[in-house]
Amino acid sequence: MPSTAEKLQVDDDQPRYRQIYTLLRDRIGSGHYPIGSNLPTEVELCAEFGVSRYTVREALRRLVDQGMLARRQGSGSAVLAHEPQHNFVHHVRSLADLFQYALDTHLQILAVEHVTLGAELAESVGGAEGSGWLLVRALRLTRPGGEPICVTHSYIPERFAWIEPEIPDCVGPFYALLEARSGEAISDAVQEIKAEPMPPAVAAALGAEPGAFALRLLRRYASRKGTLIASFNWHPADVFTYRMQLQRSPAH
Asked: How far apart are CA 107 and CA 138, in angstroms?
């Protein structure tokens, strides 16, 4: 019987990543990898298929885009569904999952500007009314040129204004860049989820009808010196699923 690597070479008309994607999709669909289980790690898949990590990651990315997998840094990919989903599913257990989410998707920067906080916004982002902040307006996509996932407005306090030139080249989440470059360790991370009508500019960017509802996620990361960054993320409510997995601590 030919090995998996040999089977991949039979169909030369399809790229290797596409063949791996099809094999993994079929394995998931057949229940070989049950829902809630992990696929093998990237290293293990590279060894099985005889390909590079880039090729494996491209195959996994397509399964993530279809809502069948959630990437977990360092421990493979978790199976979320046996067949492609129409919704975008975001699975979160820890900050590491948020980091992986930033790597697996594409952030298109739309604008960076200096703003002054009003009272309501100051309370939301953890700043002082009248204080100056950087506002990064962006669109998160499944991949460059892909489907939009959400509109993001990230607020960075003025004490980090010097980081503005580094924002367009940031790889991974902004909070990780700020933590690394500032030397201020994150001591607190808060997330709020709220359903609300999309602001007109958000609806236009997502191609949604005016007044369509969104799930607005506000994530605020703080050090002992105050907020590092606060990000509003508007997701179309009809095509976005946010899944959290919580575990009871051993003491309970």
From this structure: 6
